[in-house]
Design goal:
CATH topology of the largest domain: Rossmann fold
Number of helices: 9
Order of helices and strands: EHEHEHEHEEHEHEHEHHE
Largest sheet: 10 strands, mixed
Helix content: 40-55%
CATH superfamily of the largest domain: HUPs
Distance between the termini: 22 Å
CATH class of the largest domain: Alpha Beta
Structural class: alpha/beta
CATH architecture of the largest domain: 3-Layer(aba) Sandwich
Oligomer: single chain
Shape: elongated
Strand content: 15-25%
Number of strands: 10
Amino acid sequence: MDKILALLDGSAYSESVCHHTAWIAKKLNADVEAMHVLGRREGAASTDLSGALRLGARSALLEKLSALDEERAKLAQARGHAILEDAKAILDQDGVPNVNLRLRKGDLLDAIREIASDTRAITIGKRGEGADFASGHLGSNLERIVRTSTVPVFVASREFRPISRVLVAYDGSASSKVAIQRMADSPVFEHLDLCVLCAGPDKGRAMATAETAVAKLRAANVTASPRAETGEPEEVLARLVADEDFNLLVMGAYGHGRIRNLIIGSTTTSMIQTVKIPVLLYR
């Protein structure tokens, strides 16, 4: 059965990730795999204190350092289990019937690849464990996942709000066409109000491009309307999200136009930081 992979790190975004994951899973009738990954060095001392003490150090001190590292590792594992149990409680409360918990150690991307075969989508928070201390910094794993994922990546905002209005950034590129087709085929977008935006210097041409995408969505009985704006896409998108009460921003991860640069590269960070709503990325 298809599953949604929720990546959890115990940050302030983890609860929102769970609520958004539940929303998607119920739309798709999918199971949820909640995963927490312990880094290879997690639980270990930040520096190898024992290395500086080997020459002439008393064995008792080395044993204490070793015991301290072991205790840190145990605490990190216990924390990981607690994060996953909290996630399961939220997902259960939100009505997800099948939730599997997975604690892994090692590289995050390797852990994702292990279970990629039947993963329908990945959910992750915009920022990681340091979110409360560095509000302008995106999660360090986010771009790595977006670059390598073969399934949609749902980037959750800090708070969950019901999703009804969706802004779709469209530029006519191959990836944005794939995004439109997958949206047309997906139960996630049933009963939602979609606005397909194309931004560029020629408003008439932009409208024609947006209308092509809307026609495909409407053919699949998805409620959608076209919109064209002049200006820089990142500025237009940020303004519309702020002013018009959209609940979700959808983009293709690669494209041939300006919108492509929002996703991978310097503008990705800027865009995802700027908007205060979730972002769904398609490749």
